[in-house]
Design a protein that fits this description.
The protein has 126 residues and is α+β, with helices and mostly antiparallel strands. The chain contains 1 helix and 5 strands, in the order H-E-E-E-E-E. The chain starts with a helix and ends in an 18-residue tail after the last strand.
């Protein structure tokens, strides 16, 4: 009786089962409905690695997520109340998928603590 082919099949079966189990336990999506969260610039305010430019980002439960989907189109990121100079509260509807927050609604709330003036010019262009 040749045991090697049976052992190979067992190892292959166990490997496939473990691979499936790891992938099936990825973080489930989390739905946000009428939630108030903190938003700011992913680069300037949250210092997210690998972020280019000044995209909207969210801080939820101590984690940072780049925002995709609806964001205010008329927002000046570098204005006194802009997301590059201060974090803001926002009311959102959306879904957290991996490291992204995909919004269907994002309503910025009035800024609470505005910087009195820029302490130094911003170091990057947009």
């Amino acid at each position: 009786m040749n045991v090697a082919p049976n052992l190979r099949n067992v190892v292959l079966t166990v490997s496939l089962a473990l691979t499936w189990a790891c992938h099936s336990q990825e973080a489930p999506e989390k739905t946000l409905k009428n939630e108030t969260i903190t938003v700011g610039c992913g680069s300037c305010m949250f210092h997210m690695p690998e972020v280019q430019g000044c995209p909207f980002a969210a801080e939820i439960d101590g984690k940072h997520y780049l925002i995709q989907g609806r964001v205010p189109e008329d927002h000046d990121s570098h204005a006194k109340d802009g997301i590059c100079l201060t974090t803001r509260k926002a009311v959102v509807d959306g879904v957290i998928r991996g490291d992204k927050l995909v919004t269907t609604r994002l309503e910025l709330q009035p800024a609470e603590d505005l910087p009195s003036a820029l302490s130094a010019p911003l170091k990057h262009e947009h």
